[in-house]
């Protein structure tokens, strides 16, 4: 499997880019959000990729971060969500927005993606809510970086990232607090406001595990009104 491409953009289409990697052109499908963020033709670019292989199809999808790539994979495990719908969700919300929506159970935010109905959006939230904290914690990981020279390359994806959710402990540990703080920081919250929300959430319910702590803190940090 091809896990990452580094090369130069040959052209940008409506939903894909053609990346020239040492003379070989790869068509990589991307979300609207990713497409808008990419540079123009001739510029160096690097994308994490996920390849879909079926009897009648071989298609590459590209992502700027491992978090975005992992959400793409997880979204497609939900009944009724294929590659097109997963890309639509990521294009509408971004990786951080998907993390927040699923952690908070906000299926209305997921429903905003083109072509998604309320039942499917609710199914996405219900089936993936326990995996959100683990994926959110990946936010501090690397983003795809273009090669500084012409030695563009193709990397294979030999070990897919498969986040697992640890069994909740009977009482919150210091690691749960740190994981919650890390996840909130990865979503762009300042250390002070993240720490305040986590402390408040624990004060209201000291038995919260990591997932519950993140959800409670996000609710406290959500805009009021």
TrEMBL record:
UniProt-annotated location(s): Cytoplasm
Pfam families: HHH_5, RuvA_C, RuvA_N
Region (Domain III): 172-225
Keywords linked to the UniProt accession: Cytoplasm, DNA damage, DNA recombination, DNA repair, DNA-binding
Major location (coarse): cytoplasm
GO molecular function: ATP binding; four-way junction DNA binding; four-way junction helicase activity
Domain I: region residues: 1-64
Domain Helix-hairpin-helix DNA-binding motif class: 73-92, 108-127
UniProt entry tagged with the keyword Ubl conjugation: no
CDD domains: UBA_RuvA_C
Complex and partners: Homotetramer. Forms an RuvA(8)-RuvB(12)-Holliday junction (HJ) complex. HJ DNA is sandwiched between 2 RuvA tetramers; dsDNA enters through RuvA and exits via RuvB. An RuvB hexamer assembles on each DNA strand where it exits the tetramer. Each RuvB hexamer is contacted by two RuvA subunits (via domain III) on 2 adjacent RuvB subunits; this complex drives branch migration. In the full resolvosome a probable DNA-RuvA(4)-RuvB(12)-RuvC(2) complex forms which resolves the HJ.
HAMAP family for this protein: DNA_HJ_migration_RuvA
Protein name in UniProt: Holliday junction branch migration complex subunit RuvA
Lineage: Bacteria, Pseudomonadati, Pseudomonadota, Alphaproteobacteria, Rhodobacterales
